[in-house]
Amino acid sequence: MTAVPPVVPRVVVVDDNTVVRRAFGVVHEGLDVVASHATVEEYLAAPAPCDVVLLDLRLRGAGGAVGPMQGRPAIRALTDLGRRVCLYTDESRPLVLALCLRSGAHGVAHKSDPPELVTEAVRRVAQGDVVVTPSLVELTEVLDRRAALDLTDRQRDTVAGRARGRSWRDIARSLHITESVAREHYSAACTKLRDFLQGASAADIERALGIGPDDVLGAG
Amino acid sequence: MRHGGLPWGHAPRTGADNRVTERVERGLSIVAMTLRAVLAVQIVIAVPAGFRAATHPWVYLLVSLVVLGQCLLLVVENGVLKTPLRGHWQFPDLALGLLVIPVLAWVLPASYAVGSWENWAGGYTVGVATLLATWMRPRPAAVYGVLLSACYLGVVGPLGITTWATVLAQGATYLGLAIPMSLFVAYVREAAHAADDARREAVEATRALELERYQVTVHDAVTVLRLLGDDATPADLREMLRAQARMESRRLRTYLRGRAEPLTHLGEGQGQGEGEGAQDAGLPAESATVASAVESALHGFEDLNVELALMLGGDIPMPLETWEVTSRALTAVLHNVRLHADAARVVIHADEHPVGWEITVTDDGRGFDPAARAEGFGLRTQVRGAVARHGGEATIESTPGVGTTVTLVGPAAVLERRTP
């Protein structure tokens, strides 16, 4: 929210799927794809400047073998380089995505989402926002219910609406605010989520989610 | 409730829908036949003695034969028609009743006017007044009773063979029989009509219920078949529809076997038997949760981009019946989304609720204006109606161009703690 938004975000795509790498820029006209790589190692070898790195969560090497850097280590490597990372994945398990946020990712977009939603998510990540999917919005609700997040009433209402899939228009109308104000509340709530995930200990997160000891640490 | 258009009497109601009325009419006609036959026998017994005592024996005999013939005709008519309401031989009865009192008083000595069966006019007219009740309404019956009383008083009173008190009391008998009997028979007929109406309403309600049950049972199958038969349906969706069609066929077979409730589907291999519902499949009570109801409903909808958000309410236990109804309602909602919404994303969210649990299904499809368009059968009956019948509530909000949200709220189950 603090950075000056670029008109067309510069994007680097890291995905092991050739079709995705080739077609992403064509399908997402509102994004400027400056480079695409099959692995994080490739990108780190020649890191082109960009506003957002779109990172596939599961990367396979040549011949489909699992081996290249991926997951949380990949996120950390990219954020250490000063890049904003938006995951581009089919993964929807809240805990896994929460761990990615904890590792420094700024947002999540699903491959099944329509191009306009993905474009919007990347733009907002480029602007400094934290962008989460419905499954992570739900996690925000859960953590807030368990008093782990200090959301305001408006942020709570906005998160509840988004967790239920409601449109911005519906949420704004029911709260008697404008859509842009609703988005601001939501963005602030998402930032609180990421701050909590990055700042809290594993034990705190496990306690807040009501899961067993070491489940967070052991989740990869 | 008054039936029939005749001013003096009731029009009979017949047919398969009026079984109680028909039985009452048959009973009344048997009573009328019996009473009329007894009257005829009494007259036959008295006629020889009356003939010998009469001052005009041949007139006496003629009147007696006419009345006996009339009695015979009415017995036959009642026996054939099985109701006193139809036929034409009641009307001569009225005339004969008024005629025989003065004629027998004329043809017999005055001493026979009271207390003898040689003058059978009194007994006969009391019978006529009583049987009026079986075919005439209370008011005209009362009028005729007054006429008979007046006739009796006018003829027997001046003869001076007994006290006026006796004559008046005898004259009041006509009214005393005609009016209460007419009221009683009218009451019995009304009760019979009410019983037939209640039965008819019950039959119609049962038919409507069965029709709704049938519609609920086949609605989803029709949706699946419609999409399967549509050439524009994509090939990948066809495979899912075929799986759903298999489930629907099993469910319909269960319905045809006469199970009481349309059963919800479980996933392939989830139930113990084909297409069995939660109770029939022996789903453990602790497995009937909000999350399992949602997951059960999702089978065959892999083409929809569904996001599940069940962390807050997924573990809430549901009563087994509620579980089935909720799963069916969610299936109906998803069929609607597939058919009408053209949605890019569907979010199913579960949460706690003061009543028990809350499930919302929100799509970002084309939506509709609820004020301008009536809800279809699926939303109205399978969702709103079915959930309400099981102690829950369904609300549907939609905005054209924005999407639709269906919210289901229902009671949670109270599970007994197991002792180790």
Through-space gap between termini of chain A: 30 Å
According to CATH, what is the class of the largest domain in chain A?
A: Alpha Beta
Unreliable stretches covering 5 or more consecutive residues of chain A: none
User: Tell me, what's the shape of chain B?
Assistant: rod-shaped
> How many strands appear in the DSSP assignment of chain B?
5
What report would you give on this structure?
The complex is a heterodimer of chains A (220) and B (420). With 220 residues, chain A is of the alpha/beta class. Helices cover 49% and strands 11% of the residues of chain A. Chain A folds into two domains: 10-126, Response regulator (Rossmann fold, 3-Layer(aba) Sandwich); 134-211, Orthogonal Bundle (Arc Repressor Mutant, subunit A). In chain A, helix 1 (18-27) links the parallel strand 1 (10-14) and strand 2 (32-37). In chain A, helix 4 (94-102) crosses helix 6, helix 6 (134-145) crosses helix 7 (153-163) and helix 8 crosses helix 9 (179-199). The longest helix of chain A has 21 residues, at 179-199. The radius of gyration of chain A is 17 Å and the shape is globular. The two termini of chain A are 30 Å apart. The model of chain A has no long low-confidence stretch (mean pLDDT 85). With 420 residues, chain B is α+β, with helices and mostly antiparallel strands. Chain B folds into two domains: 16-201, no CATH class; 284-411, Histidine kinase-like ATPase, C-terminal domain (Heat Shock Protein 90, 2-Layer Sandwich), CATH 3.30.565. Chain B has a five-stranded mixed β-sheet, with helices on one face. The longest helix of chain B has 65 residues, at 164-228. Chain B is rod-shaped. The chains are: A alpha/beta (220), B alpha+beta (420). Chain A binds chain B through residues 92, 94, 112-114, 117, 133-135, 137-139, 141-142, 145, 163-167, 169-170, and chain B through 305, 307-309, 311-312, 344-347, 349, 360, 362-364, 397, 399, 402-403, 405.
